Sequence to fold (265 residues):
Amino acid sequence: MIQNLTPPVRALILDMDGVLWRGDQPIGNLPAIFEAIQTQGLRVALATNNATRTAEQYAQKLQKFGVTFDPHFIVTSADATAHYLHQQFPHGGPVYIIGEEGLRKALAEYGFYLVEDGQVLAVVAGLDRQLTYEKLRKATLLIRQGIPFIGTNPDRTYPSPEGLVPGAGTVLAALEAASDVQPTIIGKPFPFLFQVALERLNCDSHETLVVGDRLDTDILGAQQAGLRAALVLSGVTTAEEASRWSPPPVLIAPTLAHLLGLKAE
Fold:
């Protein structure tokens, strides 16, 4: 399917959850899928709105599925947020962080560090499963002082074995309600995460295809970034929902393997 697109596809930006795996279960034969990507001469980056894990942790997860992958080409919303802040504040510095290990480590790589009190360059917020009223209070006071308010991603929920639970967007909504300030959001469906992935791939938008399973983040984000988008039905979106999306994705397939022309598993 990918081979029939014009202009030809030279690179892929793949979402992970719903495209490569569901929870701890791979979707298809991942070693064969990545071998096919290499055989077809495609460059590949992975992109996710999840800011709680590091790129290295995602690479370790892929290794458990039998795939060796360079963490440099795994872009999380935490990585993209750190990249964005580096553009604004090239020398790094103190920030107030509501978030987890993935966000803290990504920011640290660009010289940004958490301070609990005192002046900061920005308030950076994402999913924090140890969220407290005190964290919200400190962040709100800083934002109301005019400190830039940055959000990793707008996902209000994320799936768990028990059902949908609060995501980063819920944290941002609480801060927005308390501060009367809308955050600058970095993750999908906003373009910046895709721009970072394109930089790392060293590819142009016209030769790159985004593959995702969510219409409101992966597909919308790709379309807003000027990228072609392919939808797989192996995650959260049904064929009926896909049929109502406008403009439609350039391709719709059951799985990533089908997009690559592999035989059905």
